[in-house]
Each structure stands twice: as C-alpha cells, then as structure tokens.
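Thread: Newbie trying to understand structure tokens

Hi all, I'm a second-year student working on a class project, and my supervisor (Dr. K.) asked me to get a predicted structure for one chain before our next meeting. I've only ever worked with sequences, so writing a 3D structure as a token string is new to me. If someone could post the tokens and maybe explain what I'm looking at, I'd be very grateful. Here's the chain:
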Amino acid sequence: MREMKIIRESLFEGAKRARGTAIVVDVFRAFTATPLFFHLGARKIVFVRDPDEALTLKSGHGDMLLAGELDDRLIPGFDVGNSPSEIVNKPAGFFRGKVVIQRTTAGVMSVLSAIDSAERVILGSYAMARAISRYILSHDPLPEAVTIVAAGNHGITAAPEDEGCADYLEHLLVGSHYDHLEALTRIVFNESAQKFVRGDRDYFPREDPLFCLQRDLFDFILLANKHESLVVVEKREPPA
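---
Reply by user tm_fold:
Sure, no problem. This is what the structure looks like when written as tokens:
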C-alpha cells in the first residue's frame, strides 16, 4: 500500500503551497457555517473573493443569498453573516433551495489560494472531520500527499482552533497523537475563543464556539471545484 504523506501548512502562504489533496481548515467560523447551509437545505455554495462580486452575482436572482463577513463584520447588503448561531436561528426554510454566495476573510480566501496548486480542495472543520478522513481513506490508492492548511486568524496569524482541528484530522488519517481536552484547553482560553465568550461585540456571539467545537456533526464532506469562472462547493458523502 502506498504511504500517504501528511504536510502541515498554515495561513495564506501555506494555502498557496498546498499540493495533493488539500484540506483547508477554518473552525471559527467559515467551514462550520458552510456545512450548515447544506444541512438547512441550500442547493449550492459559491465562493467569491470580493463583496462586490457577490452583490453583482446576486443582482436579479431571487434564489441567491449572500453570506459572510469582511474583517469579522456582516457585509452591507448581505443576507447573513459568518455566525453559526445566527444561521441556525434563521426561519425554517430560509436556505432551502437557495444558492449561497459566501465570502470570508480567512477560510474562503484560503480555499481560493489553494485551488490552483492542489489536486483537490476539501473544506475542513471539526464538524466534518471524521467524514473527511473516511472519504480520503476510502481512495485506492491513497493520495500520495495530503496538505492540511490551518487558515488562522484572517489568514495572517495562527489560530489554536484551526491547528487543533488539523491535529485531529492528522490523527484520524494516520493515527498521530491527539487529545481533545488538551486542544480545547488551548482553544477556549485563547483570545480566539475569548472574544466570543466576553460577549461585548454583537458580531462575535457567545454561542458560536459551542457549534464550532462540536466534532463530527455531519456525515458529508465539501469539495471546492472550479466551474468556469466560479469556485463552487459540492457536497459528497463518503463510503459508510
């Protein structure tokens, strides 16, 4: 059996170096939000780099919703932010049948950076980790290289939740050490989580980490692919 090499990368620069099968991890909050859109009935997700591009795409299309943030805040003209707790509290049917155009500062931008160099790009978070590992390990032969990219804070500085999730994914793929209590301790007492816990900024709801740190919520994975001029996210179910 061919040995699978795990490559660890971080931030925008690491995303640009991704090769083989890339897993781009953004736990707080983009890639906890994206599977929620599908879970709540969205039929397609499109990633864009620029808020103006999102607004242009939506113009005249009633079946499109705009989601995401710029520097953590809801973008004017967008329908929903980057908050899992906000997403799950939308009215029933809000996302059903819709195309969601998503723009975020770290996760989406890191995927757009990785997509030209990697053979395939998978969205990574705690919520999908076990499904991701099952999908990758189901391939015969195994991928020669899997690059796990921790997107970090705005793609510029390391974030313990992304590094911790990358550790968990590596553990699931090759059996390396992982202790979830140790990871949670590093995450929860770091500013990455404390900015939510304080509750002093409405764009950082206290409830968001409760969703983002749940492991293995979903039995599907999300692949980002180029379709002509757009980057489209597709839902796949790994073998049982």
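A couple of things are worth pointing out once you decode it. The mean pLDDT is 97. The chain has ten helices and ten strands. Feel free to ask follow-ups in this thread.
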